[in-house]
Prior knowledge:
The chain is mainly β. Helix content is 0%, strand content 46%.
Amino acid sequence: MKPATIRSIVFLSFALPFCGFADGVPAQGALKAEMGTNLVAARMGQSVASLPGGKIAVFGGHGPGFVTLNTAELYDPIAGAFASRTMNFGHDSPGVFARLKDGRYLIGGGSSDLGIPAYATCEIYDPTADTFTPTGSMVRFRSLGGACTLTDSRVLVAGGWWNHNDAYSYGELFDPATGQFSATGPLNQARAWACVLPTTDGKAVVVGGVGYTGGTIAPTPELYDPQNNTFTKIADDLFEGEPGWTILGPANVIDETQLSDGRYLLLGYRAVNGVTVYRLIVFDPATKTFAKLTTTPDLPDSQTMAWYAPLLNASKTVAYLPGYSATDSSQLNICRVDLTTGNITMPATPVAKPQAYSFYGSTFSLVKEGQIMVVGGTTGDNFGALPNTMFLTLTSSDTGPLLSLAMYAGINISGTVGDTYRIDYAADPSPASWTPLTNITLAVSPYLFIDVSSTNAVHRYYRAEKTL
């Protein structure tokens, strides 16, 4: 084992006030948009995950010509670059994408070339070892299924896209202990891109999504009971007396939407007299109920803005919603929601995209506080995938002159250039177990690694171990 010398690195940033109002929402800050480093491969329709240590993993999707990709990419925020990885199978608009209890990721199924659902093959990505390992295949081939990990570590998959088989009406269970899938009973509402939410008693709620060949469907919340292997309809609507509220399944794993109190933060919407109204909705896994989060003011509706799903910061105290102007999709903005007060703010002036391209098929990740990375996209349709990335950054605040202090742990590693070291951390100096953080290949020695996930840690201890 190689010893690691640890020191604290302190970064200071000053925020200047900005006053005014934006579409009825109190104005705060200014927004900057700039193109980032290109992906190794042009892609759209991919899946994305935020990994320990601040890295972003991008899985599959399809490239130019609507050709399914069997590659993944890792974004390193320190290096500001992507590194390509080869998967065992192609996964465009995957049928299952979930984070397992041990931190690995299950990804499987998806569409073949031209977006045709055809695949049932699955694999597991281990972010610690940075490896892809094949596992059992799904019972039904599917794409755009919803998924979550249950309290007993099994993964529930529900629904799917298109009518090449009946995956849209069924679910299945993946058992990581055996690596095998098994069929469930039928859903009450056929759907694709459903939101699948685990409950504290080991069950799951399936809600929302879209029709399996497109179009709007009733949200139809239904409860999955693994003991009976059945789905039972809970209600027609999310809120009694308010028909039309629905939820579109998140592009990221559902775990990334979980708040510190255990509830899940989702974006709900419904049409009222031809106008789409947006609200943040929370799901309580203990009571299996949905509630509208009170914000001041309400989110701007579709007459002003169109919103993407919220992204949570590391402390789960702030949500960021990227969006674009209803009158000009090239004009971008970010709504900041303080989850402790319900207050929402956004810059008074939107910002134009640095390049003319569509976010259709893109994914969004929060790289750090106030900064969103957009990955992939298209020239305008499914055949024109692009390697673009873009950063949307909130650069100032209107709460008066203030000092924003961020403290990060820095690990100074001395070793042989070219060797790879696994970095682990723990909250206690004598832990029962260590949590893997990342792998570092020394380009120079000594090498300074900054743990961008350490901001809110009161204590954190590290070790660096050479890998074989």
